[in-house]
Structures are given as C-alpha cells and as structure tokens.
Amino acid sequence: MRRTGAEIVWEMMKHEDVEVVFGIPGGAIMHTYHPRQKYGVRHVLMRHEQAAGHAADGYARVSGKVGVAMATSGPGATNLVTGIATAMIDSTPMVCITGQVPTSLIGSDAFQETDITGVTLPITKHNYLVTDVDELAGVIHEAFYVARTGRPGPVLIDLPKDVQQAETDFSPPDDGLELPGYRPKKEGDLELVQAAADLVNQAERPVILAGHGVLMSGAMDVLRAFVEKTRTPVALTLLGKGGFPESHPLALGMMGMHGEAFVNRAIQKSDLLLALGMRFDDRVTGTLETYTPHARKVHVDLDAAELNKIVPVDVPIQGDLLHVLRQLLPLVRPAEHSAWLEQIEGWRSDTAIRDVLNRPKNGRLLAPQVIDAIYGGTRGEAIVVTDVGQHQMWAAQYYPLDFPHTQVTSGGLGTMGFGLPAAIGAQVAQPDREVWAIVGDGGFQMTLHELATAVQERLPIRIGVCNNGYLGMVRQWQELFYDEHYESTHLVNPDFVKLAEAYGVRGWRVSEPGQVHEVVAEARAHNGPALVDFQVAQEGEEGNVYPMVPSGAALDEMIRRPAAAG
Amino acid sequence: MDRTLVAWVEDKPGVLNRVASLFRRRAFNIESLTVGHTEEPGVSRMTIVVDGERTDTEKVVQNLYKLVNVIRVEDVTEQPAVMRDLALIKVRASNGSRSEVMQIVETFRARVVDLAPETLTVEVTGTEDKIDGLCEMLQPFGVEEMVRTGRVAMVRGKQSGSGRS
To answer: Which residue among A325, A377, A504, B54 is least crowded, i.e. fewest CB within 10 A of its CB?
Structure first.
C-alpha cells in the first residue's frame, strides 16, 4: 500500500488501538491532521497544548491505555513540555507527536523551529526525530511499546513536514521489535523474594506502603490477598489511592505530609516496611534522618534505579509488583498482629477530635464540607480529578477511594492547571461515569480556557472550584512559616459563575454550608458541563490543611489541628 | 577511587547526548568518557570513568540501563582488564634539551611522532599513572600542548561484548 507519512500516522493509530488524540493543529503538523477523518480516530481540539498533554495524561490514567497528544512545531511543542514532565514523573504512558520543520531546514532557526527532542530529552522515557518515512511505522510501533511497558512514561515523536508528505510502501509492522537494550523485568529474583518473605514472617509491626505501582501493574487483588493473609495494615501514597480500598479495616489511608498523624506514627513505629511500587518521595518521608528508625525494609519497584535511591533497604526487589506479589504470597505465613493493630486503632481514635475527622461547625463554608458533600452525593463512585494545592490534599483526605483508577492527580510534579484538562481526558475515557474536577481558584485560572473544549466536546464534567481568593497552599505556608506575610498570594478573581456561563457552562455560587448539598445535587443533575464556585474559608485554622509535617521535621512531628476546635 | 564502566550502546543519533545528559541531570561526576565503534555493526562502546568517591557507581549503572539505547553495562573495575589512555604531548625541545627529552621518551616507551625546530610531539599509551608520570618529567621543558583520549578498557581473556546476539 502506498501511504504518505501523514497517513501512516493514522494507520498506526488504528494499529495501536488509539481511539482519541488530544491536540491542536498548526503549520508543521496540519499535513498529518488532513487525512484523520478517513481513519475514524477521534480528535479533541484543546485550547492550549499544555492542556492536550494533561488531557492525554488523564485519559491514560483512567483508561489504562496510552494517551496521545499532538501539536505543531516550535511553540506548539514547547507548550507540551509541562504536560510531558507531569506524565514523566508520574509514569503515565503517553505518546506525543509533534510536527517539525522540513528536514532541509532543521538547524537553520526556521520559522517555528525548536529542537524539541533536545528539549524533552530529560523528561521523556524516550524520543525520536524521524527523518526517513520508511522508518515511521516502526518508530510509532516502538514508541507505543516503550510508553506502556516497563515503568511507563511519555515518548515523543518529532515528525518533519517533508516526512509527513513523503510516500512509501506501508505494511503494518509485525510484533518483532529491535530493542536490544530494553528488557522490562517481571519476576523478582527468587532469593530476594524469599528474603522478603522471611522478613514478613518475622515481623511484629509491619506496614505496607502502597504506591502508584499497585495500580500500574494491576496488583490490586493480589495485594488484598496478601494483606488479608498477613493482616498487614496498608498506608497509601497520594497516587496509590485506589490501589487498596480505603473502607477496608486494614486500610490506614494516606501517609505523608498531609496524611493522618496515626498513619505516619504507625510507619515510624513499624518494624517492617513493605514499600510496594512507591519511591519514597520527600513528601512521604519527612526528614530522612529520623525516618522509620526501627524498620527493616523491603522495596519492590520495576525501576532498579529507584531501589536504594532515597532510603537504603534490606531487600531491594526489581520486578513487576503483580508478579512479585504472586511469588511472595505463597511464601508468607498467615498472621494476626492483633496487638499491633490495636495499638494503631488507639492512635487513630484521637483524630476524631483533631485533624481530618474534626470539622469545625461555625457557619463558615469549609472546603472539606464541599468534598464531603461531593463524596456523599456520588457515594464515592465518581472519578475525582484534582488540580494541585490545598483542595488536592482535602480531596485526598475527604474522598476515600474504594475503586481503582478513579483518582487523577499530579503527584510528582505538582502541576497547577492540571485539573480541568485532565478531567477532560478522564471524561473522554469514561463517557458514562461521573467526573468531578476539584480545583482551586489559582490553578483553575491557569487552564480555565479548557471550559471551551468541554463545551465543544459536550463533556458533562462537574467542576468544583474551592475558591479562597488565594494561592492557598502557598498562603498556608506563609501563615505558618513566614509570619503571616502574604506575599503575592492574594488573588482578585473574576466572577467564576459569569465566566462559566460565558463559555456555555452552567454555573452556581455557594457561600453558606447549608447550600452545599442542594447545589451539588443540582450540578450533578445538570445535563452538561457544570461549575460550582464554592467560596470557602480563606485562612486560619479553617483555611489550612491539617495535619501537616513541616519541612525538615520527622514524619510523626506533625502540626495538628488545635484540639479545642469544634 | 575511580571506577571503570564499559557500556555497549546502539549506534544511533543522539545516544552520546542521552548519556551525557543523564550524567548532568543526576549530578554524576565522571572523569572521562570515550566512545567508538566495536566489532559488532550497529553497536558502539563507551568507557566511562566515574569518580567513585562522589558518585554511586551502582546508581550510574542502573540509570544507564533506563536509556532505551543502552544494551549492556559492565563495571570492570574489579576484573582483570587492560586499561589504556593515549596522549599526544607537544613539548619544547631545542638543540640543547632535545637529547634529554628523547631519553625520557625512551624510558617511558613512548614514541616521537613529529619533530619541529623548537618542539617535538610525543605519543604515549598506557595507564593514566604512566602518562601522568611522563607529563611530570616533561613539564620542566615546557609542555606546549597536550591531548588525552581518556581511558579505554577491555577485560582480559573471556569473551565479552554487547550480549546482543
């Protein structure tokens, strides 16, 4: 079959089972866009390429498939960079296709030329500049394989205009790949797995630290079997939420900077940590000097470079968590750990009067009440997409997850502006599920132009803006650690309801706690995209996320909510 | 102490850039890096000398493996291996000092590869220690110019290679 490079792109999208591409056309990629409809692949036209990256990311996290973003050369490609970096650090499988100036002009500073393979080299799992149309099909096939296997990540393909135009004989590549240096590992080394089992069988105070890897490897069921057999309590990282049901009696909830105090205490007092598909981010360890002084450590990760990177461990196992847990499960003995679990329950009980479970009722609208109402209304079954900041932590605290792949959040990079476009990707992946974008007023304004995309694509996303008139998390730090000097964090905001309506999105405003449930119900019932501007408490105890590990402190040296509140 | 790594990589555009970028981004300290062709078509071979005091060699190896184009990495530091550096040294040598310089060159089993009225150019191959030693001896005469290739290494005896097959 004679095909142009542009046609090969879409042939290969079909071959790789791609249903949808998020992007924006432009001079150097329009030739590729031109034949799209012939191939029946959906295109979601975004308003900014950063959003195309985040939408592909949100789509990938919810669908489990590779997300695809497309952009033109130069500024189109550089706008993708934040989306790519976000996907890289959170290990999202993504393929980005960028147009490039013709090969004859590469290196000449041509119009809209940027060396995007150079720019994205450190933030992609791999990237390609295709200079020969005969290599294009193979490169695309390889790119999808690299993106989704091993530790997943974004792969970029830069496609010069003349390569898009050139014709060649096309036949779909067979499954043989020429990747002599790329051998993702599945099973763990048997000796190490046995060593891990020995530690598990000796442990009296074990804790599992379950991360994103549980979800990425599909290890939810085997993790649960392991947990129930060994009666080991499970603490979750932010991105690990959904990997183990939070309503399970052995679930502790989120660990780390804004995890509950009893969770962090259990980690600090443990005698064995089983770190499963997580990478000891500084947001979950507190200071390393005093981190888990009594614990032996087992670390399972697909990526050998994560082992012993931050925290030295006794048993480092490289492998796919699903396979390693299957190897480990028959080697561990059933256990009860009654005394340990009782001790943890004792620590848990005081959070009813402090921290997360204690919500002051004084007539002011608090963001936790908002999340609570969304949780109640959706019975915990919505897909919750967040932006980054205080509301993100509140969503993590007040929207416990029982189902996998129902949370989408930028964990590693902490990308403000992620929420709305990622929700677009999530809703495209799951058109029949209820998707809530919970965002702050600061981050929302970084990508709110994507309201137009939601309207154009008829995506019934519900957007809850936790509007406190500040860059709230920065303000909280200023309140606690910078003498309440609110430097450059106060925001004079537009009328979000009018703004929503201008875009064709139905809008509501809520400022009283009494209105929350009713308006959430109305927004849920609305047939189309909906936005609620929740005007929440701005500062002080009601405006802060508690508890909190201040920077440089030990994991269990948390700033707690004053006990007298409420 | 420095550590010597041998890396077999696919001979594709940008691979050296990927390796160099990795070292920069992870703040790995390297002493030298050489790259060239091998007996296998399509495979290049790098010899990388890492500052073992300031950089965890194990981390370097693990991160190199994350690069899709890196086929195999071996730490040959503890293995019986031939390790060589090559240097070209242009040293001042007038009529008065020439014979003395030649004598030093002879002692180090180096070779004179160019002669000019005021200078001569020496080619020397060996371990870094030997080359350092020669440089030290030539310094008093006036070293005008010097270039070194950086270390290359090959394990003695057993057959190695990329293991690609």
So the answer is: B54
